[in-house]
Amino acid sequence: MSVDAWQARFARGERYFKFIGGANLRDLPTIERLATLYTLAGAAIIDVAAEPEVVGAARAGIARARGWLTEAPAWLRTALEGSPLPDLDPLVMVSVTLTGDRHTEIAVVEDIMCVKCDRCTPVCPPLSIVNGDVNEPTCTGCGLCLPVCPTECITLVQRETHPDADACWAAGALALEIHTGAADQAEMAATRPVAADWQRRGGLLSYSLDGKQLGYPRVLALSRELGEAGVIIQADGKPISGTTGDRSTIPALRLARAIGRLDTGAWVQPAGGANDRTGPLAERHGVAIAGVGMGSFARRVAKELEAGADASSDWARAVSAARALVRTVGQPPVLTSKG
User: How far apart are CA 193 and CA 211, in angstroms?
Assistant: First the structure.
C-alpha cells in the first residue's frame, strides 16, 4: 500500500488495524509469519523493529500473503468466509525508540539464582522464556515472568539499538514511528531532522506517547508540539499489556480522547492494552480514533503458528481468528485530518 492510498482510505472514514510486532521482536521467521497472517486478515500497517533485515522479513511475509490471495486455495476461501479480499498491501512501519522506552526491554535471568522451577514458561505470551532460558529475539519485555519468579532472578534490561532510517527506507519501510520514551527536550529535538526528512520522502510519520510513563500533562504537551495534519499520535495507554476485557483498553481510550480534544489535526490511534473491546468501546463512548494498534493481544491469535505449525488447517484457523479481530476495529466515519 502506498502512503497516498493509505491516507485516501483513511480520509474516507475507514478505521485501520495496525499489527504491532514492535521494536523488540527480531526473530525473522516469526516476523514473516505474522506479516503473512495479518496481511491476509486485512491489517493496514505492520509495525516492526527498525532494522533492514526485519523490514525484509515483513515484506517477505506480505508477498507470501499476496501470493496466497492470488491463488485463493480452498483453505483460505474457507477461512475468509466469503469476506472481501484485502485489496492493498499494508505499510511496513519501523519503530525507533528513545531513552527509557519500555518497548526495547528484554528479560535477563541471573543463572546462579535460577532454580529451574519453570513457573515463567506458562505465563510468557510468545514462549520466549522456557525454564529460565530466554530467547532474546522473540522477547517483548512484557514483564509477566517477573512476579511469578520465586527467587526474583529475572530482570528487564534495555536492549541496545542502532536504528538506521535510511537503510529501513531502502528495505521498503514507508512508515516511521518515534517512541518518545522518557526522552528529554534535547533528545526529542535531535529527532526532528529525521522526522522531517522522512516526511519529505513521502513517508508516514507517527509518534508513540506512553501515558503511564509520562503522565497526562507531558503527553498532552508533546501532542500539541508534535501533532499536525498527516501525523499519527499513538496513545499508548499501558504498553505491552494487552489482556482481555474492558479494563485492559480503557487507559488507551481515555488517553486517545484527551489527545483528540486538543484538535491538533493529527490522527489519534490507541494502543497499549488494546484488544477486541477497543473498537466497540470507542464507538459506544464516542471516542474519535483513526484506528487501533494491537501487539500482545494480536500475537495470541498467532500462537499456534509461532510454535511452528504450518499446515493449511493451522493457517485457516489463525486467519479466521485474526480476521475476526481486525473486524472489531470497525469502520464508522471518524474525524479526518485538517488540511
Answer: 25
